């Protein structure tokens, strides 16, 4: 790759007040982890009087582009497959699980509590409570931290957390006028009343209401926000395409080397068994450069190639108190340590959650950026990732927008999303958080690191960050 993904830094023309003050940081082009790093000897983040919460293990079914092999299924089918995969992977007795919580974003109205329906379908006892949470792209993050809270408070010893999204089949409603008419028909007491209601129907009543990936408060799609953010931080189209190509290239390498061990195969009824993510598509800069702007036309820089795609998928993790896990003979994958949630302006700062969450979670844990061995950030758009890196590396932004004395610093690229990310592996809105955590845990083990930092932005101007600590070998 060329341009910004080189070992030298250069400055782009300033095209906004932010960009005029933000230095362009150098992105390393070092080979990605040719050899495993030596194990670190840092102190543990265990705290006296606080339960250690561990991830015993976690799985996900392959993340697929919407409209492909999962197109004829329902969300609970995918969530059920993830739960069954987790049961097979861990051999945990179903009656040991005290609680189940799943995240999702665009709910299927027939299974509004998809956690409960999936749990019943996977064979869990009908005595095992389950509920569903929604927090946009950090829904399964919220599911996991809900589980952490239940265990830390002593209410539970073992919780399954996960997430699911099926973008192949989203609810499409009648217009509000038609809905009111149809509800009126159910209450009509006579033929005359029914005919009167029917006579009021006009052609525009039949226009459907499609779900939009847009902010309710601003009516702006996330793609438009990403384009404005890229412009504000002077992120060029070339830089975004180069970062997207990096994501796909690293994901393909991870696939080929068998590193994505959280994957479990899924036999789709009436179709073949799905064994890998199907959105990984290494291309060339020339091919990517031919694509037109997807949102701000014709001069925008966000395209289909440097954006995450609509994805179907599900994930699940088994969380336990360390005491319970060891008593059952498990060797956990990682500790889940400090975490934070943040919120900011949903218009101009919609996608800057990682910038705001990262310094807060590091302070809670008593760590610095230099202590982090593995970074796993959600990639909504290439421009969003690069803008966050610039914001995190800017004293001016920290002082003027975050009320902080100095910048937290940007993650070194050689530690960042080294097995691909949402741009390449896919982004089922409700399921990505669990993938981030499991990837961090597996990378820590393979690379000999101790601390991982997971972060993500979400609709509504919200964000999340969490510290993952490798379990001692």
Describe this structure in words.
This protein is α+β, with helices and mostly antiparallel strands and 473 residues long. Among the domains are: 176-206; 222-259 and 336-468, Peroxisomal Thiolase, Chain A, domain 1 (3-Layer(aba) Sandwich), CATH 3.40.47.10. It has 14 helices and twelve strands. It has helices spanning 75-90, 114-121, 139-152, 176-187, 191-199, 222-232, 237-256, 285-289, 322-327, 353-365, 382-392, 395-401, 422-425, 432-447; strands spanning 53-60, 64-65, 99-103, 130-133, 158-165, 266-267, 273-274, 311-321, 334-343, 374-377, 451-458, 462-470. Strands 1, 2, 3, 4, 5, 8, 9, 10, 11 and 12 form a ten-stranded mixed beta sheet that branches. α1 (75-90) crosses α2, α6 packs across α11 (382-392) and α10 packs across α11. The longest helix has 20 residues, at 237-256. The chain is globular, with a radius of gyration of 23 Å. The two termini are 37 Å apart. Residues 1-38 have low confidence and may be disordered.
Task: Jot down its keywords.
473 residues; alpha+beta; ten-stranded mixed beta sheet; two-stranded antiparallel ribbon
* Level-2 CATH architecture of the domain at 222-259 and 336-468: 3-Layer(aba) Sandwich
Q: Which residues form runs of ≥5 with pLDDT under 50? A: 1-38
Major β-sheet, in short?
A: 10 strands, mixed
CATH homologous superfamily descriptor of the domain at 222-259 and 336-468: Thiolase/Chalcone synthase
Tally of DSSP helical segments: 14
CATH topology value of the domain at 222-259 and 336-468: Peroxisomal Thiolase, Chain A, domain 1
CATH class bucket of the domain at 222-259 and 336-468: Alpha Beta
Decide which structural class fits the backbone.
Answer: alpha+beta
Q: What is the chain-wise order of helices and strands?
A: EEHEHEHEHHHHEEHEHEHEHHHHEE
Classify the beta-strand content into a percent band. Answer: 15-25%
Whole-number mean pLDDT: 91
Give helix % range: 25-40%
- The backbone outline, from C-alpha atoms, is globular
Count the beta strands: 12
Q: Rounded to an integer, what's the Rg over CA atoms?
A: 23 Å
Q: How widely separated are the two ends?
A: 37 Å
Family: Belongs to the thiolase-like superfamily. Thiolase family.
GO biological process, one term: fatty acid beta-oxidation
EC number: 2.3.1.155, 2.3.1.16
Pathway: Lipid metabolism; fatty acid beta-oxidation
